[in-house]
Amino acid sequence: MSTETVSIDREGKKMGMWLFLFTEILFFGGMFLLYAVFRHRFPADFHRGAAGESLVLGTVNTAVLLTSSFTIALAIAAIRKGEKILSARLQAATIFLGIVFLVIKYFEWSAKIAAGIYPNSPVLLNLGKGETLFFGLYYVMTGLHGLHVLVGIAVIAFMVHFTRKGTIGRENDARLENTGLYWHFVDIVWIYLYPLFYLVT
Amino acid sequence: MQNPLRESAARTYTAVWLALLVLLGATLAVAKLQLLARFSALGSLVIASAKAGLVLAFFMHLKDEGRFLKATLALTVCVLTALIGLTFVDVIYR
Amino acid sequence: MTLKDEHSSAEADFYGRTGKYRWVVAEWMMSTDHKRIGVMYLMAILSFFSVGVVLGFMIRLNLLSPGWLMDQQTYNEFFTLHGVIQIFLFIIPGIPVAFGNIFLPILIGAQDVAFPRINRLSWWLYVAGAVLILASLFVQGRPPDTGWTFYAPYSIQTPANISTAVLGVFVLGFSSILTGLNFVTTIHRMRAPGMRWFRMPAFPWTLYATGWVQMLATPVLAITLLFIVLGRFFGVGFFDPSRGGDPILYEHLFWMYSHPAVYIMVLPAMGIISEIVPVFSRRVLFGYTAICLSALAIAAVGYFVWGHHMFTSGMSDTARVIFSFVSFLVAVPTGVKIFNWVSTLYRGSIALDSPLVFALSFIFLFSIGGLSGLIIGALAPNLHLHGTYFIVGHFHYVMFGGAGFSILAGLHYWFPKITGRMYSEKYAKIGWLSLFVGFNILYFSMFVLGFQGMPRRYFDYPPEYHLNHVVSTIGSWFLAVGLVIIFANLIRSVFRGGKAPANPWGGRTLEWTIASPPPHENFASPPVVRQGPYAYEEEAVR
Fold first, then answer.
1. Contact criterion met (CB < 8 Å) for B87 and A41
2. Which of A23, C81, C240, C290 has its CA 20 to 30 A from that of C170?
3. Nearest to B89 among C216, C314, C322 (CB)
4. CA torsion, ordered C426, C431, C437, C441, to nearest 10 deg
5. Cβ of A20 and C181 within 8 Å?
6. CA distance A172 to chain C (A)
7. Interchain proximity C5–A1, CB inside 8 Å
8. C223 to chain A nearest CA, in Å?
9. Residue A127 CB contacts under 8 Å (≥ 6 apart), including other chains
């Protein structure tokens, strides 16, 4: 097809990715807006809610995600030096850390659900309006963030494949770089979620 | 780590990574020890922004980008801030 | 890949088979050619427009004598569907996806958009979203009955199929975001040599501003609609007062998108008018720079006025005053544009062909819509008029009289370029006359009804409103006849119209330098641009 010969330059591809991240900022922004309003209305309940979160697991998860950002950044640096195998390994390490993050998240969620705290649960409705909203936001925001982590893992898995196959290389790293941008963005969202849900006690 | 990565990029990234972990410790300390008393929520958000800034500047190479991306990122953040701010004009005074 | 194509398409226009797929439908659905995608979009939005018109027509018919055609529940479903289709399937995607896709790359001298495959993905998402919305009518339960705004908490409690419809709108939003992202990147990176920012025609400028609004507003709608679905399925009560939630927050989030969405509809409409007016008055677009920059200004200010949809919602007084004030600011860049179009016409050598006739109707109707907007943007009159037909009148003057008429203007302007055929000028004008007269009878009587106090969305009304309802409905008949003539003329011309030359109107922008319809790759070699878009000056000297 004639149009497929049109290939936008590297700068353009990167610009497209950044613009997409801007839309993601607004997407999560809608949730941060609700968080801000409800926290303003129910400060005491939000403190009590945050005290019920596992600070240890939250902190470990933050460290895990920060480290995964580090490894994907190194993977891009490696591909720019032409080190394909090293890059693929670093990408795989990122995937591993992403999975660790999700597993920890899974334990956090299941502990809460076992304690009867989930949207619309009788226990939660008894706790009162503020905490209902707090945990509602907790599930929605960490849930959508987790979904983004999952998508990121899937995309990086493709990148590992492309790197091994050689379609991503020193001269052709735009896809990997864009994946990195996305992954860092997901990391940044978590950087804000962490204090809002674990530290406002 | 292997030879090629020992060059500048890898060293910078390692430094940034360590700085991020230090900031993580700092935010934990601020929150747990109540160092800033009633400003602790604000404190952890400032630290979070510092972390986000590091990721943006170094990992996402924003510091090497042209004016367009920096300006439009600022624009996006301003739009979001304005949306939240204008909503609060209603929420606070209702 | 390219070589083979160049063989087959040296002469062929973009409708010609590439032979890559066995079935024509597959070839088109899989195509990444911006013109083909644009043509498919154009056919889709016009089909949905027709469906929406029929629904609106039947709503009006029922109001002649409430209940003779449908019962209350059906009436609610009809106006919900009318709104959802016209807003989300026709007018929001409308101009950017149809005319933007076909002409943006050509107008800036590019071969395609920046991301052709993402463009195709946008189109598929649009189809998927449309299918979901239509599915909400037929799957178990009853069709949505909330109005197009899906206001909580009713949208969370009603047994109707809200989730399916809302999911459809969510998918459409994704399509819209990707289109905006694509266009903004295209304009930044794909302009032909010499096509500086201030040599771009006005239409790409408005698409650029629109693209930013699509990117920075639509995600807010996406998350809001997601909250509705989460509320319905999991009982997350963000908008449910009994759980500490706040229904007014829903309105905030909804209008944070849906007000800027007004500019997604109207900005590119203004772009089309800015293309047509100079061509048919043979003059440089007056205040070209001001027109381009005012598009950005409207997009920027339009972001912070959403609260004027909520003056009667119970929002704080401080917020109401601020939003009312900011709303007035939007009128300034809009006024700049209106004055510039009129000044372009002044002392021009005017050719009153049908594209210009539609464009002038746009200016007239949009001015009425805009000025009535000032009335309800002011806090005090709004409290009286907000829940009435006045809003319905204002809304249709802006949306239909504005965006709708500009689509018709663009359709008559670019029809020869898109299809390679000419249409009958006579029938275009007869159709226009019936449409224009019917439009004003239909919607102006709504202003009167609103002042008298007729509440909007109501199924029934007391006898004192009967006369104006009858007048309004009679207007809708003229309007419908006009539309039928217009579309019959165009459809007939696709098959029977005479061959169109490359430049039937004497336009000076790049699309008129290539064949009608354009060849597969737009330009044989990248055009080099040496002057601004509306170079009529030397002609005037001669």
1. no
2. C240
3. C322
4. 170
5. yes
6. 17
7. yes
8. 6
9. A45
Residue C32's pLDDT is what? 93
Read off the pLDDT of residues A80-115 as tens digits, 9 standing for 90 and up: 999 999 999 999 999 999 999 999 999 999 999 999
Nearest to B83 by CA among C5, A29, C444: A29
Q: What average pLDDT values come out for chain C (542 residues) when binned by 10 residues?
A: 40 81 90 96 97 96 94 94 96 96 96 95 97 90 91 91 94 97 96 94 97 96 95 91 92 96 95 96 92 93 93 94 93 92 93 96 96 94 94 96 96 96 97 98 97 94 96 97 98 95 94 93 89 72 41
The domain locations on chain C are 24-513
Nearest to C98 by CA among C183, C200, C216: C183
pLDDT (0 to 100) of residue C541: 43
The span from the CA of C163 to the CA of C257, in Å, is: 19
* Chain B residues with CB-CB distance to A200 below 8 A: 41, 44
> pLDDT by residue (tens digit) across A48-57?
998 888 899 9
DSSP state of C400: I
Residues of B in contact with C316 (CB under 8 A): 89-94
Phi, psi (deg, nearest 5) at residue C421: -125, 155
- Yes or no: say if C502 and C512 are a contact pair by the CB < 8 Å rule: yes
Is pLDDT of B79 > 60? yes
Integer Cα distance of C299 and C293 in angstroms: 10
**Chain A residues with CB-CB distance to C243 below 8 A:** 125, 129, 132-133, 136
First to last CA, chain A: 59
Cα-based angle A121, A123, A129 (whole degrees, multiple of 5): 85
Mean of the per-residue pLDDT values for chain B? 88
| Residue of chain B with shortest Cα separation from A199 | B31
Residue C10 is which amino acid?
A
Whether C440 contacts C403, CB under 8 Å: no
State the Cα–Cα distance between residues C342 and A169, nearest whole angstrom: 56
Task: Find which of A20, A21, A68, A70 to mutate to test the B interface (most B CBs within 10 Å of its CB).
Answer: A70
Query: Do A86 and A78 touch, CB atoms closer than 8 A?
Result: yes
CA distance C381 to C259: 20
- Please tell me which chains touch C, using 3 or more CB pairs under 8 Å as the contact test: A, B
Question: Nearest to residue C292, comparing CAs of C327, C249, C336, C251?
Answer: C336
| Whether C308 contacts C330, CB under 8 Å | no
Element (H, E) at A133: helix A129-165
Q: Which pLDDT belongs to residue A201?
A: 67
pLDDT of amino acid A2: 35
Contact C483, C53 (CB under 8 A): yes
Distance CA C365, CA C477 (A): 19
> Residue C133's closest CA among C121, C150, C120?
C150
What is residue C522's DSSP assignment?
Answer: S
Alpha-helix residue ranges (DSSP H) falling in C346-465: 354-377, 379-385, 389-398, 405-419, 425-452
The span from the CA of B45 to the CA of B84, in Å, is 16
Rounded to the nearest angstrom, the minimum Cα separation between B68 and chain C is 10
CATH H superfamily, domain C24-513: Cytochrome c oxidase-like, subunit I domain (1.20.210.10)
* Mutation for C interface: B90, B92, B94, most C CBs within 10 A: B90
Q: What is the DSSP letter of C146?
A: S
CA dist C478 and C482 (Å) reads: 6
pLDDT value at residue B35: 67
Contact call for B91 and C303, based on CB within 8 A: no
CA atoms within 13 A on the CB side of C154: 9
- Residue B47 with chain A: CB contacts under 8 Å: 195
Residue B8: band (very low, low, confident or very high) from pLDDT cuts 50, 70, 90: confident
